[in-house]
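hey so u asked for the seq, here:
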Amino acid sequence: MAKRSGSSRVTIRDVARVAGVGVATVSRVLNGDPAVAAATRERVHAVMAQLGYQPLRTARALSRRRTDALLVVLPLLTRFFYVEILRGIEEALLETNYAFILRTLERPADGSRAIASVRRDLVDGALLVSMAVTPVWLARLERERLPAVVADADPAVPLSRIVVDHAEGARLAVTHLARLGHQRIAVIDRPDDPFAEKRISRRLLGYRQALQELGLELRAEYERVTPFSVEGGITGLHSLMQLPVPPTAIFVGSDTQAWGVLRAARQLGLDVPRDLAVVGYHDIEIAELLGLTTVRVPMRAIGRRAAQLLLEHLSGRLAPGELAVEWVTPELVVRRSCGAQGTDAGVESASE
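ran it, structure tokens below
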């Protein structure tokens, strides 16, 4: 069927008739309702393209008292970890009419600007990524009656959330290094919240718990918390290797810092993995190029699922006040930087 010509505008009823579905189904597709079957959604989108249907976004939003916009708040946008989460969010919204307003938190003043965006006349809901949801945030969301989902959340946050078991990820890394014969295992971590650097991350807690479970000595001098950067990894390793009894293995809280550790090892004339075993965290793209053993966190999948949960809140599939909580368990990806490739290389999950 050809597109209509002249001044006659294609309506939602035209789309429904040609697609063989009800008007309500077309409306649900436009609103991004995840309950619509994939085949039905694809057929409706194909008919809209065939007929040249263009929804009147503003009028439709006003009629539903919605903005068709979502607020996304995340720290340090330049970090690959957060870019991947953002790509997952985009994938989930691709077949909806939702756009998002992005707020990044790189300076303390950015928090006020982000909170100011939590307004029902600006957005329909909020996606908060890897951030401490303070009482101020909770009060603002409650006041505006906005649904919110937290990706990479603190387990105790009272909102729908995707929780990554970072403590288990650290345990996988430390246990693996211990199995390779290392007893002096250090950690170079990063702050989970750049504005609350004294807060202990779940990775660091998992590192400590793993050492205790393995019967290895817990040495305070083996713990470093450095900036989330290559330079942070360089600084951390130089500091650790100046100790009277330096470590033989290091678990690093991000692949970005681990890249710095590898660079610093070369500067110090250390062979990785013969002199020093290194395990990173996240499994960003460069980790494979570096041959970096790391703990894989499915970043894009986390962003995609968090956005889907928010869409379920907005569509009514999740009732007001109903919370969805989903856990993600990391996996260990073995490459050459730990010295084990060729023996137990591959992916190891928490159940193994």
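The chain has a mean pLDDT of 86. The domain at 12-55 is CATH 1.10.260.40 (434 Repressor (Amino-terminal Domain)).
lmk if thats what u needed
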